Description:
The protein is built from three helices and three strands, in the order αββαβα.
Amino acid sequence: MPKQKTHSGAKKRFRVTRNGKVMVQQKNRAHILEKKSSARKRRLAGETQVSPGDAKKVKRLLNKR
């Protein structure tokens, strides 16, 4: 049986921590940044945890258990 391939789009967007949480960069931080306040951009700077229902799908795409 051949090896399963990781979904190349998912591996660029998501990261799985050692504890199994799925992390993703927050939205609204990619472009059109001049009109957004500095406080808003700072708040959006970090990663956030994916919801449990979506995390299960993402882990399947990344071949993680």
